[in-house]
């Protein structure tokens, strides 16, 4: 947690409705109005390629609310995402649509950060609920509030879940060694005449 006691949340991904960004902003707003100390950093591109005005709309919502504008930061695209994870407490991936995999959860785990996810596609396969993160009961701002509040009420769980998240990479086969072994196995299966 930050020196001021604030829970440091991080979202990494496209700033789009389908990714649940508006749900996350609404949940943070509810908690801030309760007097909770939260900082939310959103990492991801906010314009140019989205073909809609959602990023502009959500930024205006944040800027128009003094509580949100003091606690929510859009930082755009970042090359070194790991550097952002290591200065955060909890990663949030509230995808409304069915995520096929969720690489960002793996990135959070490799930094030792627990994740809060919606029950969306492959995201639930990457989290052991109540061990290395939290799978929300439903796709709603209220469910996010409950999940975030659990870390606010028991801050010791952040480190415990983060340690479990990092060690779980081996269980799900997402370590550097596992990837290396998979590549070597693939190369050995490829006829020598087809190798580059």
Strand and helix map with partners:
Blueprint: E1 7-12, H1 21-33, E2 38-43, H2 54-64, H3 66-71, E3 72-76, H4 81-85, E4 90-93, H5 103-110, E5 115-117, H6 123-126, E6 133-135, H7 141-153, H8 156-171, H9 176-189
Features:
alpha/beta; globular; 9 helices
Describe what this molecule looks like in 3D.
- There is one protein chain.
- With 196 residues, the chain is α/β, with parallel strands linked by helices.
- The protein is 46% helix and 14% strand.
- The chain is built from 9 helices and 6 strands; from the N terminus they run βαβααβαβαβαβααα.
- Strands 3-2-1-4-5-6 form a 6-stranded parallel beta sheet, sandwiched between helices.
- α1 (21-33) links the parallel β1 (7-12) and β2 (38-43).
- The protein is globular and about 65 Å long.
- The protein starts with 6 loop residues before the first strand and ends in a 7-residue tail after the last helix.
- The model has no long low-confidence stretch (mean pLDDT 89).
